[in-house]
């Protein structure tokens, strides 16, 4: 099953195809900004029954260097079969479209990034034939954007920075800068980035921070994430009120039960001592709800010569 982080790591390039040229400077290459971008089918299956799909495939056109293909793969962990798949993708796309093909692998941890960027050859050592060495974007080379102004200058890059650093200590500062920068962005710009970032964080601890930031800083956006947090807050308030009412009712019931018990004890002592109990005395005792006053009457009931004198000095 495809996970939310997997989707976020490659779909963000579909959302903003020009992101690749801006990311490339962090990867040690200089890729010109596209003047046009086209999303292509990701199904690379041939006539045989083996299904092969690249995560995101874009055709990017530049002003000076012509067109090329960009295949983006989201990689969550090491997988021994992946280099062969990547070799297939690039060879197939090159053959089908007759265009130079770039492969970008996006990772969220250092170990996977280190593994992914190692060159892998399909031939023996002395005959490499075809070597695959994708560009890799991950926590090792993506910028740590903690300044809201820097985030505001490139919101999509800041979102990718948060996604690729999702498991890193710096992610909290990145998220705070991004949420601050998004306050001034139009809803149609901010909303998809809120969702991409949430998907990329998945179930990591930083997801809770992002949800809270979205609920507070970006509360005017009608994203599912903000609504989800608001629903939880409403439910928490309802539960708190319900608990307070329940505790209050329990306390009242407990006090009433205690008062009733003490009233019965007072009457029992007076009766056992053979003192006459008028209806006024009985009514006053049984209708009293003050535990401390009843306690005082109970102490006096042991010694008073008349039932009416229970109330004296009260």
Count of DSSP strands: 7
User: Which class of secondary structure composition applies to the elements?
Assistant: alpha/beta
Oligomeric composition of the shown chains: single chain
Q: Assign a percent range to the helix content.
A: 40-55%
Strand content: 5-15%
- The SSE order reads HHEEEHEHEEEHHHHHHHH
pLDDT below 50 for ≥5 consecutive residues: which ranges? none
Main pleated-sheet profile: 5 strands, mixed
Query: What topology, given as strand order, has the largest sheet?
Result: 1-2-3-4-7
Can you tell me about this structure?
This protein has 314 residues and is an alpha/beta fold. The chain is built from twelve helices and seven strands. The chain has helices at 4-15, 19-24, 82-97, 110-116, 148-153, 155-164, 171-182, 187-201, 206-217, 224-272, 279-286, 291-301; strands at 34-39, 56-62, 66-74, 101-106, 120-121, 131-132, 135-137. Strands 1-2-3-4-7 form a five-stranded mixed β-sheet. Strand 3 (66-74), helix 3 (82-97) and strand 4 form a beta-alpha-beta unit. The longest helix has 49 residues, at 224-272. The model has no long low-confidence stretch (mean pLDDT 84).
